[in-house]
Amino acid sequence: MTSENIIENSKYYIKDEPYYLPTANEVEIFNTALAENIPVLLKGPTGCGKTRFMEYMSWYTKRPLITVSCHDDLTTADLVGRYLIQNDSTIWQDGPLTTAVRNGCICYLDEIVEARKDTTVVIHPLCDDRRILPIEKLGQLLQAPPEFCLTMSYNPGYQSAVKDLKPSTRQRFISIDFSYPSADVEAKIVNQEAGLELAVCERLVKLAGMTRNLVGNGLDEGASTRLLVHAAKLINRGFEPKMACRCGIADVLTDDPETVALLHEMIETLF
Amino acid sequence: MGLLSRLLDKLDASNRRNLSLSRKGGSLESKQTGSSGGMSTTELLIRLELVMGQGSGLPLMDYANEMARLSHPLQLFIFSQAAELSDLSYGHANEFLAVASTALVQMEQKQYERWLLGIKQTLGAGDLAIATEQIENYIDFTTERDTNTAYLNDLTYTLEKLVFSIHKSELPFVEAEISVDNALMSYTDNEALYLPASISHFDNYADNHRLYKVLTFQLLGQIHCQSAQALGSLNEGVRHHGDDYLQVFSTIETLRIDQYIKREFPGLWRDTVLLNKSAETGYPENIFDDADITSVQATLHLTASLLESTDVLPHLIYQSTFQLDLMAHVQKLTVERKAPLILNPTTDVYEEMLETSGDPKTADRGYLRSLKNSKGDSVLKSPPPGWIPDSSGDVEDEQHTTKHHEKGVFYYKEWDTSLKKYRKDWCRLKETVNEDAVETIEIDNSEALRHAEHRIRKTFDQLVNDQKFIRGQSDGDEIDIDAWVSARSSKSKDADDYQNLYIRNNTNNRDVAIMFAVDLSGSTAGWKNSMIKQSTWLLCKTLARMGDQYAVYGFSGSGRSNCRVYPVKTFGESYTKSVKSRIFSMKPDQYTRMGAAIRHLSMLLGKTTAKTRILFVLTDGRPDDVDSYRGQYGVEDTRLALNEAKALSLKPFVLTFDKEGMDYLPYMLGSNRYQLITDISQLPIQISTIYKQLTT
Ligand SMILES: Nc1ncnc2c1ncn2[C@@H]1O[C@H](COP(=O)(O)OP(=O)(O)O)[C@@H](O)[C@H]1O
Ligand SMILES: [Mg+2]
Fold first, then answer.
1. Same-domain status, B166 and B279
2. Residue A193 CA: which ligand 1 atom is closest?
3. Ligand 1 atom 4: residue of nearest CA
4. Which residues of chain A lie closer than 8 angstroms to B501, CB-CB?
5. Which of A196, B90, B574, B614 is the most exposed place for a label (fewest CB within 10 A)?
6. Which range marks the domain in which residue B685 is found?
7. Is A249 an 8 Å CB contact of chain B?
8. Is A230 in the pocket of ligand 1 (CB under 6 A)?
9. Is A240 at the interface with chain B, CB within 8 A?
10. What is the pLDDT of residue A195?
11. Is residue B373 part of a domain?
């Protein structure tokens, strides 16, 4: 059970520096949390750089990164591991969380609120001072090495009030706010990611700002940095900017015809 | 005295008549309201007489009969229009009434609004014969319309939101006054944008529409570029040079704002260029170079230097009309925002405002009003933002100007069955938390209730334990030894036997959200109310154990602009003392405008992420509200609202006290989606049984 569970670390290492432009002091905070063994919570809307930040930090700290995208059927067994049957006998297979603990990785649980409630139970003892992962089925208590770090992300904008984290879970974390970057930083990011000329990127960012002002007023969420990058890539490939914004931003954000029309008007004023 | 008391007397009399009819066994409903939920012929006749005068010899009864087919809002619309027309020309009002009922059902709202606007404009111009033709030829408006003209009404929604997305706070769009020489008027007081009601300057729609956009952004530009700062110099200039000064300033300031638009909204700048081309305006390219446009001072400088050589300046089709009095208002606003009022005793204007009232907000409104009074034909013809007419609900064309961002206030559409159309933003719904502590929590200490609690527990416990483990799954937390053994011993050695060897633990797999919508109309007073409260309380208590998401909201209200929803327990809340207190402070309120309430609560329920989402409506009768939200009209709107809920993949269910409910519930909901409360003491048990059926 031992040797085969040790991951081939190289698989989880990030070798090339990912492009990440810090928007505030998130890098320093994360490093401190790592040093102090405090788990981290990344709060922010989708597509604002959380995943990219984790990749960057993994590269920066030279620790392997294991990412789990949570969904509403994710069970404790999916995280910790389970027995499988193979040729008349059972074998144990580690889940990603166990793998991360065993190997001192950074474990990133993306969109944690999506996971089933009982999964947070195994997270508790990992987050407090004991830093233990109980593996019930093996009768083991796995002690996390100092390199292990747990990070979770969630989007406070989504109205799944009930699925919000319980205070007992929340209060074990340090939180980093990932709201949209400031306009000039965001324009730089888009410029860098898509290689599109800065002036056009600035206009895309402006469009995003306008959509973000409409949140709660026809839109559930404004255009994310990711969408801007998409639109920018389309433009870069020779698509007309208006067309690129429609396909890459407006039509993605909503299906409501009135709001789509409004978004198209916005595009018309800027391009 | 006079009109009003006469009307009241008559209404009284007619009510009495109806009442006596109903005692004789006639159905009250059919006599009191028209078939579409509007006013009865009696009431219509009285109102018609009120508008057209008694003994006029006009066939008012015929009109009333015709109008009885229409919905209440349409009827009101006809009255308000007839009244307006009769101010212009009595004869034309009559001509209008003769065709109105037939005409309106054939037209879209936009079309009839245009039709009437046209008639009024023609009458205003004194062309009586043409107006008659317009009235008679309403059919022209049903088919094709003046396709070249752009109308503010059609564009307000988009433009308002567009401006909001840039300005971050609301700037309502208001119709500008019509100027003497029919020039396009547009101006702003930094709190609203005033634009012409329609634009037909160009002979094609695209340009007229474009002009609206450009005008809008010019006004927005004035706000962002702080044009109003020029006020002092402008006043000076006008005193010395007359209105020409303002003219020149206006052109130059527009050119300055053009630079802003060119920089900030390149797409709109393209529109501006196209407009100038269509209008064949020679654009002075080099008046501003980008460097010196930062302040309105630049404009003032240029104005002074160009005053003598105005022929170099074009007249731009989209330049706005600067209004000195409005700019003064803007300056005061700025003063107010910049300095807290106690620290700023220097400005005398401001002191004046303080005298009217201590509160800066009301002082401000007081100021608006006095401005309105002092100036005969005020530019502030429409009410200041935030102003809500007292007679809300009575006026058909009442505009909710500041509708989008009032806190806790929502607007919902409503289905008008006589028009077969939705009325947009028709109902104004407000969420109000009732924090009154209840004095006594009356809980029957009866055997029956304790029994009920026990039964609910049992039903729910079954629900929870029902499906804890599902055996023979392809994937799961545990190995299903039995399945494995049987697969091993199976003779066939079929690979399929080895597929499903796991057990899934489903404890927390119940993923249910339920919204209890409790009818708090006046008719639930008494035992119904106390039973509803106790049932809700029992359910909440037990539901809390199940881990299902649930919310409880009461609903009632009176009139379309006064729909109310009372949160008792929201989805995010857990069951606490204050929830309990709120349950027991639910009290009978007014009417039942079910559609708006259902739309609102569906919206809230739709935001939860549960797999099974139930909208549970507890009511004691059919939809009913003051402004003729009853009969077919109410049922149809509620039916549509419930259909909309289904479209959001919610499961609606109605539980009713109304024995006659079977007449309309099957139609409203489809089968298996409603139940009658047979024995009130069984209510909690009934609910828990239904709940079980719906969630498993
Ligand atoms: N600060 C940033 N630096 C670099 N790229 C960024 C940044 N923020 C956002 N991005 C871009 O946005 C995209 C989406 O970010 P991602 O990390 O996937 O979002 P999230 O995980 O928050 O949903 C990235 O692929 C990247 O192109
Ligand atoms: Mg991500």
1. yes
2. 27
3. A20
4. 85
5. B574
6. 390-467+510-696
7. no
8. no
9. no
10. 94
11. no
Pairwise CA distance, residues B544 & B527, whole Å:
26
Nearest to A130 by CA among A87, A101, A92, A106: A101
pLDDT per residue over B218-253, tens digit each?
999 999 998 988 888 899 999 998 888 988 999 999
Show which of B292, B325, B358 is a domain's final residue.
B325
Do residues B142 and B282 share a domain?
no
Residue of B nearest to A220 (CA): B607
Residue B369 lies in a domain: no
Rounded to whole angstroms, what are the CA distances from A202 to A223, B265, B343, B494, B685? 14, 12, 41, 63, 61
Q: What pTM value is reported for the model?
A: 0.63
Whether the predicted pLDDT of B440 surpasses 80: no
Q: Are residues B592 and B494 in the same domain?
A: no
Distance (angstroms) between ligand 2 centre and the Cα of A67 equals 10
Same domain, B541 and B658: yes
Q: Which helix (H) or strand (E) holds B67?
A: helix B60-67
How many Cβ atoms from other residues are within 10 Å of residue B524's Cβ?
26
pLDDT digits (tens, 9 = 90+) for B245-280: 988 999 999 999 999 999 999 999 999 999 999 999
CATH number at residue B572: 3.40.50.410
Cβ <8 Å between B505 and A75: yes
Q: Are residues B211 and B313 in the same domain?
A: yes
CATH 3.40.50.300 fits A3-177, yes or no: yes
How far apart are the C-alpha atoms of A198 and A192, rounded to whole Å?
9
Domain boundary among B301, B325, B349: B325
- For residues B542-571, one letter each, b for 16 or more C-beta atoms within 10 angstroms of the residue's C-beta and e for the rest, the string is bbeebebbbbbbbbbbbbbbbbbbbbbbbb
Amino acid code (one letter) for B41: T
Sequence spans of domains, chain A = 3-177, 183-270
Strands A65-69 and A106-110: parallel
Tokens of A209: 């700002």
B252 and B192 belong to one structural domain: yes
* CA nearest neighbour of B208 among B307, B337, B318: B318
Q: Which of B593, B595, B586 is nearest to B644 (CA)?
A: B595
Mean pLDDT of A82-105: 88
Q: List CB contacts (< 8 A) between A76 and chain B.
A: 477
CA–centroid distance, residue A108 to ligand 2 (Å):
10
Residue B377, domain member (yes or no):
no
Neighbouring residues of A56: CB distance < 8 A, sequence distance ≥ 6:
A17, A18, A20, A27
Answer yes or no: is the C-beta of A151 below 6 A from any ligand 1 atom.
Answer: no
Question: Quick one: average pLDDT of B56-82?
Answer: 87
